[in-house]
# Entry
Amino acid sequence: SKLTNLAHLEMTWRSSVHFHPLLVRILHKSRLRYYGKPEKKMDMPYQAYFEVADGSGMMSMVLWNSLCPEWYHSMKVGTVLLLAKYAVKASYPFKTHPTPGDSQMKRFAKIEISLNVRDPPTEINIIPEEMVKPEWGLPEVKYRFITRSELDDLPHNHSCDVIGLVTFVGRAERARKREHSEDFWLYRWAHAIDGTSDQPFILELFATSQPDVFESIRPMTYLVCTQMRVIQDLTENSSRTVYLTTSNESQIFITGLHNGQPYTKDAKVKSFIQWMKSQSEADQIKKTVIGGYYPFPRPPDSFLKY
# Structure
């Protein structure tokens, strides 16, 4: 059938009611959002954002309501979609935006693709990777992997991807989303090393839409975290604490989930694997720790300062 592209969609969306099908690749995926309220009777109040791209640029795509439980887990970073009978709307101004791996890619920020179960009922097809043709011109997924030796020089809020061997994982902890709120964020601390520094990556990992992965982080697993944000925590006595925290678009992968992921082709990932092959597993196991309370960032050393 006749296809359109994202650039043409942005130029013609106000004057069109029916849009030609789109062929796009998913580059980023947000956590699943539940927006239900007691007074509103909705069957499936869920929403998820994706950033999708074709040869012309990148645009947000929103998956709504009952399509979320049906499609969310099938739509992975790197998945190619054929979309028909979708809606196009002015984009929501307050949503978060991931940092694209390809800084040259054009972003169409004024509109977003809306996938609904009705008005109109969207047709979604996943194209298997082996059937994707080079002439379609779909961009590859690109990453921004950093090593531990590079981390200290990065600015606050910088977005990056990391890979490392888990040496410590703390217990799950809770923090209130807002003061006096009944809603909590669930998170845990982890350390991961990559051989480029004596210091580990300190990772604040919030439970995203991957509860099974969040529960399964263990010492000695290869951990990949994408779309992490750098936190440069400067204390009063100018001692600096640098750690990484998850963002709305973070994805976490552990040993057993890496096969077939787009990041396996990345040079820094390959370099880490080579380093791991030179390590003694028995020596690394001796350095691992699990569980316990992990006060971080560290409190001051005296009560007066506190």
Notes: The domain at 148-304 is CATH 2.40.50.140 (OB fold (Dihydrolipoamide Acetyltransferase, E2P)). Residues 267-277 form the longest helix (11 residues).
